[in-house]
Amino acid sequence: MKNFSKLLVVAVVLLSFLFIPKIGISEGQKQTGKDLKIAFVQMQKVTQNYYKWVDLQEKYKNDLQYYQNKINQMKQDFENLKKSGASAEELAQKQKELETRVSEYQKAIQDEYTQKTNQILDEVKNKVIEYAKENGYNLVLYEPSVIYADELVDITPQIIELLKK
Fold it and tell me: Of 162, 153, 165, 161, nearest to 130 (Cα)?
């Protein structure tokens, strides 16, 4: 029985080589580098010029200032409580409350803006992909992976214009 199983496996493997066409690319199908269309985009410049990014940064500054004002008021309340001769227990409780609030505010603003930042970066990335496909690009690179790019392959201005629409 074991010999029959081995024979069956060998037969299936041999038949598969006969009937399954070779997978791969023939020499005639290989594309040479001369036919590739490559572009470069300065993602930081694009995002900094995107109105949604600018709006988000402004909203972030405003929210940060709002939370900072709340924290400053709480610190002032704590200092006033200290000056009023509050007990060590009251001061410890107020200090813990202040630290908890600061932590909550930091987490809230970080969570909100991380999500919003990622949404905007995804929008920008999708616009770059859309532009690349519409204009026949095979490869689009950005800053961290490029040491040098001639202006000829820099599509940053086109992407900025596309995002203005």
Answer: 162
Domain 35-164 superfamily per CATH = Skp domain (3.30.910.20)
Q: pLDDT, tens digit, for every residue of 20-30?
A: 333 333 444 45
Q: Are 50 and 120 in contact (CB under 8 A)?
A: yes
Residue 115, token pair as written in the block = 């999500």
pLDDT in tens, 114-163: 999 999 999 999 999 999 999 999 999 998 888 888 888 889 999 999 99
Tokens of 84: 């009023």
Instruction: Say what the pTM is.
Output: 0.67
Residue 50 CA, chain-centre distance (Å), reads 15
Q: Fill in the DSSP letter of residue 150.
A: -
Tokens of 156: 């940053």
Please report, for the chain, the start and end positions of each structural domain, with discontinuous segments joined by +.
35-164
C-alpha distances in Å from residue 157, one per residue of 11, 13, 160: 60, 55, 5
In the chain, the amino acid numbered 139 is: L
